[in-house]
Input
Amino acid sequence: MLPDITKIKGVHPGAVLSRELKKRGLESKQFALALGEYPQTINAISKGRRGINPLLSIKLGNALGIYAEYFMLLQTYYEVEKAQKELLMKEQAKPDRVIFNKLLFWDTDITKIEWQRQKNAVIRRVFERGTEAEIKEIISFYGAKTVEDSLRKTPRYLHSLVQNAGKYLQISLN
Output
């Protein structure tokens, strides 16, 4: 039996479909062909690369013995949650990103950093590898108390983190 839709709002319908096929011992290729769909379509949906349309939701509902709207509602909830996250990303406060050297965040797109959710990682990276201007911007953005609290909880892999904490916040992390 598929999970109650209210418990999985925001989950991509492909993840639910994939789990259900596995639970029932169905191969996605044969399942797709039985629906009259291309196996690539079901595979792309299962991997979250493609969404569900109303016709496919009806076919899935009939094939799995559930109501026809189930997967379409999941798709809608997923789209709404995705749009809310995008809106939140646009509205969230951000430090002055011009100050940061691209090499500091070499492994990520700086425009997609969730500054509040990922603050401990950001603070750690800037204090380990940042320039004076970058460190001062982070202290200004988060506040000295928040930065200090984060640094006290952060594992100290690079000595530069300890040195910078002492230099810019006048605290000892030893």
Remarks:
- The CA atoms of residues 35 and 128 lie 54 Å apart.
- The chain has a mean pLDDT of 92.
- The radius of gyration is 23 Å.
- The chain has two domains: 5-91, 97-169.
